[in-house]
Amino acid sequence: MLTEVADGVLVHQSELLRNNTVVVVGRDGVLLVDPGITSAEMRCLADDLRSAGLRVVAGFATHPDWDHALWHESLGDVPRHGTQRCAAAAREVRLQEDWAARAAEVLPPEVADDVPLHLYGLLTGLPPGCTELAWDGPRVRVVEHPAHSPGHAALVVEDSGVLVAGDMLSDVFVPMLDDFGPANDPVEEYLVGLRTLQDAAEHVDVVVPGHGSVGRGREVLARVELDRAYLHALREGRPPDDPRIGPDAEPGWEWVSDIHAGQASSVAAAR
After folding, report:
1. If exposure means fewest CB atoms within 10 Å of the residue's CB, which of 184, 189, 219, 263 is most exposed?
2. Model's pTM, two decimal places?
């Protein structure tokens, strides 16, 4: 189930939400980014790595959403990192009373009994101002931005020309906004995030989104433009011309239109 998308970078895709776990091969082991989402899938991933003679030496969560900050015992007890804000947000969740029971209530029912929440969010925040992961492998640049979730970060695997985008630049999900608050504008935050990713993608050939298919070549910047067009339509109160929603949505993914409808209502209410 491991697919090589560039030299030294492999992807393992989850079935239900097409979550992409990214594997970056180093000298003595691999960096594992956003493993998920069920115990069965993570055991499969661990078996695939062992079969390839690879061991996990580090983990990274692009952001604190439940499906991006998971882990499983079969992957080993290794350092797991996120940005400072990501680690703090995950820690805040775990400090809440009955957090695991409440988290389980919002899991997709198809996988609710097989998501290993007990290891969710056990992250160490990167040092302030850190822009590169310290590990025994190829250079991996950390690109933090304000879009979608607190402490969200993309990773750029420099030598391989790969952008690991977290929950952005998907071909199945429209941009998913953070909550509106008195001091934040999640649409503008997302646009800032897209500008940051566009700059980071200047010399990459491959983008791996958190969900959906891998993009290559010109498709990398085309996905930035598609997300940007969606956000401008949302802000201007007009229907987006977007293949991920409405009649053009992929069969089985029609429910993404419901996400859009909720966001359109939230943006309209905030105007």
Report:
1. 184
2. 0.96
Q: Which residues of 19-49 are buried (b: 16+ CB within 10 A; e: fewer)?
A: bbbbbbbbeebbbbbbbbbbbebbebbbeeb
Bridge partners, residue 19, by sequence: 211
Q: Which residue has the tokens 């082991």?
A: 29
| DSSP3 helix / strand / coil % (the chain, rounded to 5) | 35, 20, 45
**Cα–Cα distance measured from residue 69 to residue 34, given in angstroms and rounded to the nearest whole number:** 6
Cis peptide before 37 (omega within 30 of 0): yes
d(CA 191, CA 254): 25
Q: What is the largest CA-CA distance in the chain?
A: 54
Burial 198-210 (b: 16+ CB within 10 A, else e): eebbeebbbbbbb
**How far apart are alpha carbons 31 and 142 in whole angstroms?**
13
Q: What is the pLDDT of residues 91-132, one digit of tens each?
A: 999 999 999 999 999 999 999 999 999 999 999 999 999 999
